[in-house]
Structure formats: C-alpha cells, structure tokens
Write a structure and sequence with these properties.
Layout: H1 3-10, H2 13-31, H3 38-45, H4 49-55, H5 59-82, H6 93-104, H7 106-121, H8 126-144, H9 146-166, H10 172-184
Length: about 200
C-alpha cells in the first residue's frame, strides 16, 4: 500500500528536493549549520540517504541552499519595516515593535544567528548574511544618514546575539530608548538628515 506514494515521490524530483531543503532548514534552526550531515538531513526528511547526493552536489550545497531559504524568509520582516521607515524619526515605536517581533520568533532569530555565524567562517556566504543589514541601512539612511543607520543596524546585530544567548529579547523600552539615542547622535557628514524629533 505504501509503494505507490513512494513511487510518486520518486517521479517528482522537485518535491523531493524541497523536502530535503525543508529538513536542512529545520536542522540549522535547531542545531546550527555545522550540524548538517547527509545522514541527518535524510533522516529528518524521511528520504533515502542517496537522495541527498542525487539532488545536491555536496553537504555544503545543501547548507547554502537552506541558508538561502532562511535569508529569503527574513525579507518578509524587511518588507514590513520598509512601510515604517518614512515615519521612523517621529514615530519609532512601530519600527521597534517589528524588531521585537522578529527577536521573539525562535525560527527567524536562530536563522539569523546561523547566517551570521556561518558567514564569519565562510566568506562566500557573507553577501547573503549581510543582505538584510545592507538593505535596512540603505532604507534608514534616507531618513537619518548613513552613520546613524549603520549604528542602529550594528546595535541590532548585537541585540540579536543577546536574544539568542538569553532566550529572550531585550524589552521594548530599552530598544526604543537606545534606537532613539542612536538616531539623535552627532553625524560628521554635514549632508546627513538631522532627525531632531528623535531626541524628543
């Protein structure tokens, strides 16, 4: 009775590939990218061990594809932030709300940490790991200048690691006060926007 479903799965290589990728992303979130092995991925995906090498050239290929999936998921949060950036100086609270929501989501938090830690030892993944940061800096810089935007995103990287280590994000008030202070800090670039309202 079970032979027919398995045969159907074998005839759908793209579905099998998605199963392997889904398993790899789960393992990365649970145990980090370094935990991936062909055997672990195959067991989690409930597929024959040979399927991992049939659909991916190496374990690094699986890891990179899974990290790409996780990076794409963070773009959802970035898209939400984009709708708040124009008003971030006068009303930073909704922006901080999204940051807190991101930090409180175990999957997205661990995925972000996995991207950062893996990219520190694998240079070819750095562009992927920095994609979210670079886009957020670009969006914020239009309102508060590049130096302040960089300071906020760098601070948020630290807050992300802090949340992972402590299994809880910093509270809303702490994040809000710090981000407002960073938005109001002096900027040596005279052409940068001056977000006076942020200091209020």
């Amino acid at each position: 009775m079970t032979a027919e479903p398995h045969a159907a799965r074998r005839r759908d290589p793209e579905a099998r590939r998605r199963e392997i990728l889904a398993a790899a992303t789960q393992l990365i979130v649970e145990n980090g990218a370094a935990s991936l092995t062909h055997r672990a991925v195959a067991a989690r995906a409930n597929v024959p061990l040979g399927s991992t090498t049939q659909h991916f050239s190496s374990i690094d290929d699986i890891r990179d594809a899974a990290l790409q999936v996780l990076a794409d998921e963070t773009d959802v949060a970035l898209a939400r932030m984009a709708t708040l950036i124009d008003d971030v100086v006068a009303h930073p609270e909704p922006f901080v709300d999204v940051l807190i929501e991101f930090l409180a989501d175990e999957r997205t938090l661990k995925a972000d940490i996995a991207l950062m830690t893996t990219a520190t030892v694998d240079p070819h993944l750095r562009a992927l790991a920095l994609r979210w940061n670079d886009r957020l800096i670009e969006m914020l810089a239009r309102q508060i200048g590049h130096e302040r935007a960089t300071a906020i995103v760098t601070y948020y990287d630290g807050v992300t690691i802090h949340a992972g280590l402590n299994e809880a994000p910093l509270d809303h008030g702490t994040l809000l006060r710090t981000i407002k202070a960073l938005m109001a800090m002096p900027d040596p670039d005279p052409s940068s926007p001056t977000p006076r309202t942020a200091a209020a």
